[in-house]
Specification:
By secondary structure, the chain is an alpha/beta fold. The protein contains twelve helices and 15 strands. The structure holds pyridoxal-5'-phosphate.
């Protein structure tokens, strides 16, 4: 080793643990049932696949820098202003970019303690301090978040609906939160699962963007559009903010396959409806089947269900995970204290769901 070299990363980076992505392989199973990463059970729209396949032939060229065509398609579908959109390779990257732009050393980002586990990591990467607010049994508590707001707060970041809990904050609660935030605080709403939210009192954060200048929303093609592997996310905010986010982002924010597939997917409303109907039916069925086995379920407005294993149900989350794995099924297990008695199940195909319920019944009933 060259003794004159003494490079070192920023000390804060040593405090960041690996974000644990769901496992996807099981020894002895060629095609395990992977219910660990909230991917879409029905995959991509056939129209999106076709558009993506055509685009790959242009893979030797840099993609379109101008994202106007994609923005126009999203704008037409969701009735939003294309000028308020910025794009990136997944909403994770955009969230990181936004946090980095608005918080730094000596400043704070408030998140909810059991919410999306990347949030504190984004704060640390920006050199800011994450502050975890309490929650109310895995639902956001607006009062607990507001209690944490102080002079150093720059960002409040929440996922609505949330992952891993699947719960949501109603439009009136989000508005109450926003109303009590100082104008110097940016409210970021990570709406990765918004399309799945079917309850009447869910309100899209994009409406808040139209009304207030300190709100930004992130969205993704990874969930309902089934394009997790292509990496396409977007955000919706004040024009000057999205211009800034675009300026500090990658030169080519969207690859050519994701670009064309994204437009085709947005235009295939029929396929999206099919995905949502499939999801709603299985969230309902999984909830009732798991409840009948003595398990706790958290009301989900997403494509997954968080399941609790109370002491009297006869089995622990860890041993259930082990048994499911030995049957070729991978739910999501979390190594954080509040989640040790829980597993999360993504909605899969019909066959995957029947098998999962069957294996769960065998295991729970033999306790
Ligand atoms: C709440 C939440 N936000 C953001 C993401 C990241 O999504 P993307 O694939 O767009 O980076 C996920 C992915 O699971 C998520 O659950």
């Amino acid at each position: 080793m060259d003794s004159q070299i003494s490079i070192a990363p920023k000390p804060v980076l040593e405090t960041i643990d690996y974000y644990m992505v769901g496992i996807s392989k099981l020894d002895g199973f060629e095609k395990p049932i992977k219910l660990s990463s909230n991917e879409s059970a029905l995959g991509m729209s056939p129209m999106a696949i076709e558009a993506g396949m055509k685009s790959i032939k242009r893979g030797h060229l840099y993609p379109e820098v101008d994202t106007a065509r994609l923005a126009a398609a999203i704008g037409a579908s969701y009735r939003l202003n294309p000028k308020r959109m910025a794009f990136g390779p997944g909403s994770d990257e955009l969230l990181q970019r936004i946090v980095n732009a608005f918080a730094g050393p000596g400043e704070e980002l408030i998140h909810s303690k059991n919410a999306y586990m990347q949030f504190p990591i984004y704060a640390k990467l920006a050199g800011a301090s994450p502050v975890a607010a309490d929650d109310a049994d895995f639902s956001y508590s607006v009062d607990a978040i507001l209690q944490q707001v102080g002079d150093r707060t720059r960002i409040v970041l929440l996922a609505n609906p949330d992952n891993p809990s699947g719960t949501y904050l109603s439009g009136s609660e989000i508005r109450r939160l926003h109303q009590h935030l100082p104008g110097s605080v940016l409210l970021i709403i990570d709406a990765a699962y918004e399309e799945y939210a079917q309850v009447d009192d869910y309100e899209s954060g994009t409406q808040l963007v139209h009304e207030f200048d300190n709100v930004i929303v992130t969205r993704t093609f990874s969930k309902v559009h089934g394009m997790a592997g292509l990496r396409l996310g977007w955000c919706y905010g004040p024009e000057w903010v999205v211009e800034l986010i675009t300026k500090i982002g990658p030169s080519f924010p969207v690859n050519c396959v994701a670009y064309s597939a994204g437009i085709a997917s947005i235009e295939d409303a029929e396929f999206t409806e099919k995905v949502l109907a499939h999801n709603e039916q299985w969230i309902h069925t999984l909830t009732s089947e798991f409840n009948q086995l003595g398990l706790t379920t958290y009301p989900s407005q997403t494509n997954f269900l968080l399941v609790g294993f109370p002491l009297d149900c006869g089995r622990s989350a860890a041993e259930t995970n082990h048994y499911l794995n030995s049957n070729g099924i991978i739910p999501r297990q979390f190594a954080v204290p509040d989640y040790l008695d829980k597993l999360r199940f993504t909605v899969g195909t019909d066959a995957e769901m029947y098998k999962t319920i069957d294996v769960m019944q065998q295991f729970m009933r033999s306790a």
